């Protein structure tokens, strides 16, 4: 029954994608982030994501819906980032393995660009946010309940055969989504809905802690710091955060505390030292190879050449050193530039849309996007999720929100009459919009 229900939903999305490609984009995002077919019995190997993506691309050119092909600094930088991946591909140290990941990353980034073309309304932004929240919230809420029921004695893991299968990866995904849940809660009117979302956010936080990921703990602390700094009553905010932190952390077992304490004594922790060795390998490789080493370089032969300890082979465990080792210093520069731009775009939304009834929701969105980015920036320093869709969907929300705000301001200026008066008459007509003669 579960497989049949999922099949009906996916077929409906494919059909709708031809006529309403924005529906295809939401379906693609759902498939990419949540991978619902991995929860089925018979649909795991069927190429639904490719079918939805293909239908959406066809719909992009035949739809009568609005499309926005305008360029902005974010999509231009993303295209430059993609171009650099293409330039570096022939220089990959392990070409066959690199080519496979290159194809996957190109598909993801292409659909992100298509998303920015097709989405343009408040409804689209709200639906995309809901898709992201439901996709990760399904695992986070369930994982949080599991952590509470087991006293945190077992790790929370992500869905198999996905980008977020590991405990560290699912933890970072949960951390990024919690602020988006808070944004949705801020738009809710019903008390029961707000209460339900609060419970879900608490369970999500418990799931992140239950992953036993030290990076997730640091990411949560970074987001809490941003929220506290933004709060109007800092004393009350600090007390509230301390109370919630004590309540959540009191549920965690002794082995969890022992693992978190290794943050202070990382020199004695093999896992932490292995990550530092991998970072040293990435640094040495990037210095020796202008184009980087290509994708999938975290292997014994490459470590034997560039790592400080050639026998300690680890994954990158850092979005920054992952990009540095695979795409070189230029790749890292483009990656950092891209998300720095997103941070400032979200901040612009938070400031410019604030205090106006018709745009306050966009100010709330901008603020929460910055909190998500803070979690990604800190948690990502210890996790390998440089190319996964979710952070780039945060980029999409910021870009589409900025376009929506600019369009709103342009329409307001177009509708409001402007009366030109000499400067000496300005004070007599303060209730009117006056532009003095220059």
Automatic annotation (TrEMBL):
Keywords from the UniProt entry: Ligase, Membrane, Transmembrane, Transmembrane helix
Main location: membrane
Molecular function GO terms recorded: ligase activity
NCBIfam families linked to this entry: PEP_O_lig_1 (TIGR03097)
Compartments, as annotated in UniProt: Membrane
PANTHER family per the UniProt record, alphabetical: LIPOPOLYSACCHARIDE BIOSYNTHESIS PROTEIN PA4999-RELATED (PTHR37422:SF13), TEICHURONIC ACID BIOSYNTHESIS PROTEIN TUAE (PTHR37422)
Name used for this protein in its record: O-glycosylation ligase (Exosortase A-associated)
The O-antigen ligase-related domain, residue ranges: 200-336
């Amino acid at each position: 029954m579960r497989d049949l229900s999922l099949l009906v939903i996916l077929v409906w999305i494919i059909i709708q994608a031809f006529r309403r490609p924005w529906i295809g984009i939401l379906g693609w995002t759902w498939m990419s982030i949540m991978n619902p077919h991995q929860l089925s019995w018979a649909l795991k190997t069927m190429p639904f994501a490719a079918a939805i993506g293909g239908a959406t691309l066809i719909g992009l050119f035949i739809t009568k819906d609005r499309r926005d092909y305008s360029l902005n600094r974010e999509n231009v930088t993303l295209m430059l980032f993609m171009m650099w991946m293409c330039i570096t591909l022939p220089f990959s140290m392990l070409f066959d393995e690199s080519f496979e990941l290159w194809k996957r990353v190109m598909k993801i980034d292409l659909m992100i660009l298509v998303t920015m073309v097709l989405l343009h309304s408040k409804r689209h932004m709200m639906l995309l946010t809901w898709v992201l929240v439901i996709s990760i919230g399904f695992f986070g809420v369930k994982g949080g309940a599991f952590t509470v029921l087991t006293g945190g004695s077992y790790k929370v893991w992500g869905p198999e055969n996905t980008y977020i299968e590991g405990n560290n990866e699912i933890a970072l995904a949960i951390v990024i989504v919690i602020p988006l849940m808070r944004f949705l809660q801020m738009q809710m009117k019903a008390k029961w809905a707000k209460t339900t979302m609060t419970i879900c956010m608490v369970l999500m936080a418990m799931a992140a802690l239950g992953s036993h990921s030290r990076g997730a703990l640091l990411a949560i602390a970074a987001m809490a710091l941003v929220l506290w700094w933004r709060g109007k009553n800092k004393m009350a905010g600090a007390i509230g955060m301390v109370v919630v932190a004590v309540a959540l952390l009191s549920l965690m077992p002794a082995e969890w505390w022992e693992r978190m304490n290794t943050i202070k004594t990382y020199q004695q922790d093999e896992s932490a030292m292995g990550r530092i060795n991998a970072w040293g390998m990435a640094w040495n490789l990037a210095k020796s190879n202008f184009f980087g080493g290509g994708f999938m370089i975290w292997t014994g032969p490459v470590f034997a050449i560039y790592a400080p300890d050639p026998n300690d082979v680890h994954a990158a465990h850092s979005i920054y050193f992952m990009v540095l080792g695979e795409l070189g210093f230029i790749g890292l520069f483009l990656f950092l530039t891209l998300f720095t731009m997103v941070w400032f775009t979200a901040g612009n939304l938070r400031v410019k849309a604030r205090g106006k009834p018709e745009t306050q929701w966009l100010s709330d969105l901008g603020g929460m996007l910055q909190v998500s980015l803070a979690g990604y920036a800190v948690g990502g320093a210890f996790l390998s999720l440089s190319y996964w869709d979710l952070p780039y969907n945060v980029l999409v929300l910021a870009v589409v929100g900025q376009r929506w705000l600019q369009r709103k301001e342009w329409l307001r200026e177009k509708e409001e009459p402007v009366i030109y008066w000499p400067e000496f008459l300005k004070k007599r007509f303060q209730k009117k919009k006056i532009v003095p003669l220059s």
